[in-house]
Amino acid sequence: MPTSLLTKRIIKPPRLRKGLVITEFMAPKKDTGKKDKGKLPALGSGSHRGETPSHRGETSSHRGETPSHRGTTPGHRGNSPSKKEKSSRVNIKKKGKPALEAVSEGALEDGDDTNIDDDYDAERPTVAMGAQSELNSLDVCTPLPPKLHQALTELDKIVIQVLLCGAIRLLCVEWLLMQPDNFKMPNRQALEALEKSGASPSPLLSREAAAALVRRGDRSIGALTYGWLMSGDPDPAGSRIRVLRRALIRLAIKALFWDFGSLYQAPRTPEQKDFFEIALKGGAMNQLYASILATTVLQIEEIPPRPAEFDGVVCLFELSSNADESVVRAALIRFGTIESCDLSRSPAIVRFALHESAVAAKNAGAPPDLCAGLDTLYNETPYFSRGW
Asked: Which residues neighbour 328 within 8 Å (Cβ) at sequence distance 6 or greater?
């Protein structure tokens, strides 16, 4: 296993910015054979927000049927894995363009964030994802003391155990970067079906290969945190995958934890439910994001604007078994004209003529005896307002 390296300095947390953020001690960048210009990414803190109640298993709240770092829930808030901001963050954002349109590497020091402009990017060509994942400017880094390195390695054993048993699978970044521009991320069940069909490279790392990456301790595993945008589909328009892939091209990340593709999604078989519980309750999810040696946290804070097809649509979670369309319409008509109801879906869907009517129904809460929860289909809740 290569020696893990840390910079010598500790800096204050820089101010937050929208876009995709790389969070860890030193973000591993691809070796271009050139010395980096500008400031060197500095040392941060390895702490995170710690265990939340939803890490202890499924909750009864309606924040989304999402296999997230906060656990799964019947609703759709869909918050993805998250953790406390570490004290060093490398923002990925290109000058003059929205975060969802273009990304580039940035360097931070002493609380200031510095964008690297297009000319600088041109001097640092990207290399294949299979290239050696070593940090630049190693001469200014200091190897960890052996005892500290061993202690940090011990913390990652729970992650290795969960990877080897198959409760969590890691996505292969090489495969991800080979997909077309209009690619949308399938769930884990679909990825495993593709794996069994003989796809080469496989979309998922083998259990043994994933565990080996953790043991290497070079932070070449990305752990994605973001906000789900709707129930059952965290990225309906593919905006997140576009941002993510532009970032991965520039980083020495070989494998990725993305909850939608790494954990079994609903509906799950009994065996899949068991694996899901193992992933959430054993502490491995916490350690994936907290690991100092194994992972780089990739954070997407921005919530894309609501697409027009989601206007006026609300979800009814855990609809009462004796509620038919007439009952649903009678309970919700006071908020505005109802264009359609689809009670065959899970969750049930109601479309209002105006989006203002959908927002009013959401703000009023679930009608008694109709359903356990009600929310708009597209989740526009800001990233930092999702109860992390």
From this structure: 316, 319, 341, 343, 348, 350, 370
